[in-house]
Design a protein that fits this description.
Blueprint (H helix, E strand, L loop, with lengths): L5 E6 L9 H11 L5 E6 L5 H8 L4 E4 L16 H6 L4 E4 L2 H6 L4 H13 L3 E6 L3 H5 L3 H12 L9 E5 L13 H19 L7 E5 L7 H5 L6 E4 L6 H12 L2
Parallel strand pairs: 1-2, 1-8, 2-3, 3-4, 4-5, 5-6, 6-7, 7-8
Helix pairs in contact: 1-2, 1-10, 5-7, 7-8
The protein binds 1,3-dihydroxyacetonephosphate.
The site of 1,3-dihydroxyacetonephosphate has 14 residues, from strand 8.
Amino acid sequence: MHVRRKLIVGNWKMNGGIAALGEVAAVAEAARGAAGAEVAICPPFTLLAAAVTRAGGLVAIGGQDCHWDDSGAHTGSVSAAMLREAGARLVIVGHSERRAEQGETDSLVRSKAERALAYGLQAIVCVGESEAERQAGRAAERVSGQLAGSLPDPGGEGELVVAYEPIWAIGTGRTATPADVAGIHSAIRRSLLDRFGDSGGRIRILYGGSVNSGNAAELFAVPDVDGALVGGASLTAAQFVPIVEAAAHS
Ligand code: 13P
């Protein structure tokens, strides 16, 4: 039985300017008293280096994406190497918004995760079914296909983390029920153990999709929920800190 410390990651998406850096400082201050959980914030790239300074080592700062290559002719992209140099400790890859808006495939996501691990970053690989797939009873099948295609083989210095984010629960206020989450997270755990053996028991599985201070504690009580990937409620310390505290005390 592996002990997995809860990991709470705020994904700011395309939100936040210089004024939002005060929220990073406030979360860092609160994280000092919440040693039971690990806390990270992924702001837009423009704020990354400044956020690292404001986080004071108390909150890890990460990117929301990285390229599969280290450098070169890839206009508009940022590499895992660049993130690492800017002070990032993690990166989200394969978020459903990028899969939908940028057409990212499982194999592309896998290449990005490989580069992130090679540069010693935590690679948070996102999976999750659409509303139509859920209605058709195909959620588990969809997620297992994404895991098979998007997760890299072990390697590098970084840590692999999986985030289950059902698309229908993102930004909608509709959270999956603890029973739904329990079913999918245990299926994810089984596939991790099948593929990686005993070390699959050490991989953290985060839940994401309308997590807030009101539902965090019951989600964290579900077996194999090792933390959360939080969108809207991570934008202010006032909403994010109670989620961090729920994790620290779970
Ligand atoms: P919300 O918490 O706003 O639903 O977003 C979840 C998400 O997509 C985090 O990556």
